[in-house]
Amino acid sequence: MTGGGLPSYAVRTEIQDGVAVLTLDVPGEPVNTLNRGVRDEFVAIIDRLERDASIEAAVLISGKAENFIAGADIEEFLPLETAADAERLSRSGQMLLDSLERVRVPVVAAIHGACLGGGLETALACSYRIATDHPKTVLGLPEVQLGIIPGAGGTQRLPQLVGLPEALDMILSSRNVRAKKALKTGLVDEVVHPAILRQIAVRRARELVRGTRRPSRGATGARAALMDRNPLGRMLVLKKARETVQKRTKGHYPAPFAALRAVETGLARGSAEGYREEARLFGEMAVTNVSRQLVYLFFASTALKKDPGVDEPGVKPRPVSKLGILGAGFMGAGIASVAVQQGTLVRMKDADHARVGKGFAAVRKVVEERLKKRQITRTQFEDTLALLGGTVDYSGFGNVDLVIEAVFEDINVKHQVLREVEAVLPEHAVFATNTSTIPISRIAEAAARPSQVVGMHFFSPVHKMPLLEVITGEATAPDVTATAVAYGKKLGKTVIVVNDGPGFYVNRILFPYINEAGRLIDQGAAIHEVDRALVDFGFPVGPITLVDEVGGDVASHAARIMFDAFSDRFEPSKTLDAAVAAGRYGRKSKKGFYLYDEKGEKGGVDESVYELTPAGAARSEFSADEIQQRCVFAMLNEAARCLEDGIIRSPRDGDAGAVFGIGFPPFRGGPFRYIDTIGVEILVQQLDELNVRFPGRFQPAELLSRLARSGAKFHPAGSRP
Ligand code: T1G
After folding, report:
1. How far is the CA of 366 from the centre of ligand 1 (A)?
2. SS3 state of residue 696
3. Of 254, 498, 566, 575, which is most buried by a Cβ count within 10 Å?
4. What is the pTM of this model?
5. What does the alpha-carbon distance between residue 555 and residue 586 come to, in Å, rounded to a whole number?
6. Atom of ligand 1 nearest to the CA of 31
7. Is 469 a catalytic residue?
8. 150 CB less than 6 Å from ligand 1?
9. Which pLDDT tens digit goes with each residue over 156-174?
């Protein structure tokens, strides 16, 4: 075993009987990326592999515990100013991997951990790929999630290797694949246990030299002939993909279309043309505002991953190995379903066995979904469900570390269960409430240990919505907040910590938006027009559809609590109140603003609801601009108030909370990024105009007026989340 003789920054080279084992370990970084230093070092190593006849083969392996290569260094995108700059960056990546692909000796990629973006493109340029059968080993091209496209050959090499349909699915959905699936599609040649990865890789390298093992040949057989190499088949696949992307992105995200063009160019006009088009489109996409916003959100969410949620230094979260859940309803069961999947022992209580049984069935349904998708094995399925226990009393709560209360949104009910459970809980246990509107300090009034009361506000459906809002009450102890934050992250949530107040942050900005939509209908706007305008703005669903999904009664109850707290600008619309009074709770009551069939499937607008509105059946025209402006500006204004009132700690938390909590359009970056984009002066001017028309509802937040006067931004240029 000899050293490489090359000065090394991130790659340790060991020569083992003619096989160069290249171990990549970027110093001081938790993940490997293809940053400037690594690219330069790769150039030198490839040159060495070319010239040094004593080397017959090479193995590329990572020195990091849980990632192979996480792709290009996303930090390097921030200073990019022009499409030409970005195109150059892509071209240099393409040329580097082209020289790796053409190097004199076979190179085996030994993949353990995350192999993403440029990391997968590097592996695609190797002669042979081995992956470990480990949960952390995922392979993917997530570039379109950053508003860009694979820029180092991924749009050309991946379709060649796995075929067009599979390649498009990976590139357009950014879905990661695990080792077993990758073996099936031909993305990797072999799957081994992590303990023998290096050993097998070196052996395969020798076999490739001896010719007793053949490198991957890529997509062959009927399917490839039919789909990839047949222009008609190809055209059909690409057309279908374009339709799917249009439906999913509603045209707000240009990158998937650019990726499709790069793939198509390569298949239609040859890979040389394909690479040129890939680099050109990468350049074009990397400097779009959409990409800037998505890159910002990436760094905001990784920064939140590291944020302990408390400012006091040295505060340690308490371990949570057993969780108690009060209320086995939609939210309680949802929380239980994510907790058992993270290996937590869960004790779930409700008033009677029927309710507990219903909760069990809901948890089983969520976990079964993963079994059906082969994301877990039957054994894992059984083991996961075995972690869940049910009860109609407080037995089994004597040794829980954390209780999450998810009972009916009524202060008296919450006080009662708090008193009951506190009587059996161990001294150290944390009591968290999943209330969505009632101030934590108000709930803690009934507590014997108010310092151990905290808010953990999940969003429905819990297993899908990425955000957790942790709310600190006046008495909440820092290590209690830290425990709620740490446990939320363990559940895979993006966690923001907010200070106490009615509706906290997310609901406080949501209700002015929903109320304004209701008021537009009060004034005669058509429900489908209002919803379409906000979907066109970029929300996943419109505000009225959201009310029907959440439940009109729940929304109206919360709206009342907000109105009592903030009065005028939170006055609920007459239409919402009238619909709820008429028992129109939405999907759950199969009667709402929209029609629902006996299976609860949603249909068109239920025109009969208009009789309940002040304007009656007659509808009048409202432009999409007016609808968007009134609803979105009401939300932006309230977001600014939450920052000035200290409910949220930073614009970053405000952006992440809105995007991950209520689907504020990611391509706009979040409320504060969006205000910076439209210009705070413009916003204040338009709020003033709206406030003349609707006195009291659009009075600009003082913070906005101040920023408008100073011309400052919430996110100054070059600032980091
Ligand atoms: N570039 C720069 N920094 C990165 C990074 C990257 N690609 N990936 C991670 N980091 C930083 C992150 O900001 C954090 O920093 C730290 O590493 C740990 O991350 C040419 C153009 C790999 C699954 O989109 O998905 O390749 O906060 O907390 O939970 O076609 O990070 O500690 O200072 O997330 O263990 C495509 C992004 C790039 C993958 C690890 N690649 N990364 O998750 O740790 S574009 C991606 C991830 C590209 C090519 C194109 C995850 C991870 P800090 P972490 P983790």
Report:
1. 29
2. coil
3. 575
4. 0.94
5. 11
6. 17
7. yes
8. yes
9. 999 999 999 999 999 999 9
